[in-house]
Amino acid sequence: MSHDQNFKNLILDDPRESIAFFAAVEAHAVDALARIVPIREEQLKERLGERFRELDVPLLVEWPDGRRAALLFVIEEETDPRRFCIHRLAHYCLDLGELFKTERVVPVVIFLHRGAYPPRLRLGSESTAYLDFHYLSSALFAIPAREHLNSRNLVARLALPSMAFAPEEKLAVYAHAVRGLIELEPHPEKRLKYADFIDIYSALDENEQQLYSQRYPREAAEMTGFAERFIQQGIEQGIEQGIEKGHAQGIEQGMRRGEARMLTSLLQLRFGELPEAARQRIETADPDTLLRWSERVLTAESLDDVLR
Q1: Where are the domains of the chain?
Q2: Between the CA atoms of 264, 265, 268 and 270, what dihedral angle is there, to the nearest 10 degrees?
């Protein structure tokens, strides 16, 4: 499973809420007038032989009225802290700063699991630091879930199962995540998409699912009913589209058969009875080919000249 991809989808679908939750100390700067634009993940290469360096989600925050300079958020998800490389992150940020000609860069790292990871990178000597780099750390495993159970931030509610809670709180955390999805996400497709997100990071076993249905029947019934309605709606739309497509295909096939019969009649008038091979070619030809052959009937000297 790609946790990187899961969180990338979450951040791209809800960039404003993601910044507010994962980079809270900087989020005050992102007001309602700001425009958030995802930028290319692969940075430009200096040489064609080099490998691309990829970022998880770079978000460019712009103010169309120009009252503030653009602010670049570099958000990276790390499932295993042992794989985290602060040198690579610093390199990413420096490259992006150069690419966008800005020093306003905010690096953010989301950690899913416990472990040791360097909080700071200092390059220099005993007397002077020539590069002092650090980042905002969002260690989900250390954030108390109870502090966000009723948050109005959709990203915070969806991330509840990845936060810290006691084993006996697991079903309550799951229920608050589901309730947040129902209350805060208006789009049906995204509801279904992030119901899976909640399930993945909650990982309820069969017994826990049964207990959840017993303790939180409203949430369970609402999500089940929604999923059933959405699936039924999809089936009905698929049937309708299939009928429309079939109708259009029927018209097109009918027109093609008519064109084939007309061409066959013209050829027979000009060259006599047609061989079976020629009939088969005409019957299986596409409309453009039939038109091209029809244009040759009056000028061609033989059947082969028409069908060449």
Answers
A1: 1-142, 144-215, 232-307
A2: -110
